Amino acid sequence: MSLSYQHIYHAGNFADIHKHLWLIAVIEHLGNKEKPFFWLDTHAGRGIYDLYSPEAQKTKEGLNGIGKVLKLFEKSDNPLLAKYKTLIDELNSDKTTLQFYPGSAYLAASLLREQDRMTALELHPQEIEHLKLAMHDFEKVTVKYGDMSKLISGFLPPKERRGGVLIDPSFEIKSEYESQARLLMQSVKKWSTGTFMLWYPLLPQRRHERLKEILRDAQLMMTIDEWVFENPSKAIGMYGSGMIIVNSPYTAAEKVKRALSILEKGINKG
């Protein structure tokens, strides 16, 4: 993992929206049963992102992402988009405009029940201080500093036997496409009933194809969902977002598909 990476520059972009729709769909499914579950966020980041911070304003990815499509949430009766909007609104209740954006750790923590628990891992020394503040009021969340590749096996399988893991690397290092694939396979072996979600970027170099190839060769039973939001032939940077889900809830893919179709129509109209 690159210690230079800070997600504040990219928070709220279309890739985040894709990832977070999957996150909400999966965790809501886990909450349908009374039994407790455990959630692990391996690259938790800050937890909460200020879209008007100097870093976010430098790229404006958030304002050009969630900032542009949030109005579509309001016009839609889609339950997944409605839940997502509710969680965003909770952070902006005293604001007249969208300023604070929930990261994956905040979203997951907000969806926990009394009987559930969560661990959020972060390696960046500055980011983890922000994360501790964001998670302060969530009693069921433990924040840990360290490299997820060295720590993840210690959490699996959890005592609850139910739950999931979000693996969300920056992929700034080329070798991560192979190392994350192998780490996912090892983790699934340790916790065969857990739901694992691995996010990856779609970039012109198409290194993500190697990631998928390794997992297919290992005959890993998985759902692959890719959302292309820019023309790949014209893109210089990220043109889409990918999610690999192991042990996906049977309803999640269709829920995410419906939500994305609403956003796509709105984006294309705009």
UniProtKB/TrEMBL annotation:
Which range is the signal sequence, renumbered to this chain? none
User: Any idea of its EC number?
Assistant: 2.1.1.266
Which terms does the record give in the GO molecular function aspect?
23S rRNA (adenine(2030)-N(6))-methyltransferase activity; RNA binding
Question: Which residues constitute the catalytic centre?
Answer: 168
Name the family the entry cites: Belongs to the RlmJ family.
What the protein does comes down to: Specifically methylates the adenine in position 2030 of 23S rRNA.
**HAMAP family for the chain:** 23SrRNA_methyltr_J
The name under which this protein is listed is Ribosomal RNA large subunit methyltransferase J
Q: Which organism is it from?
A: Cysteiniphilum litorale
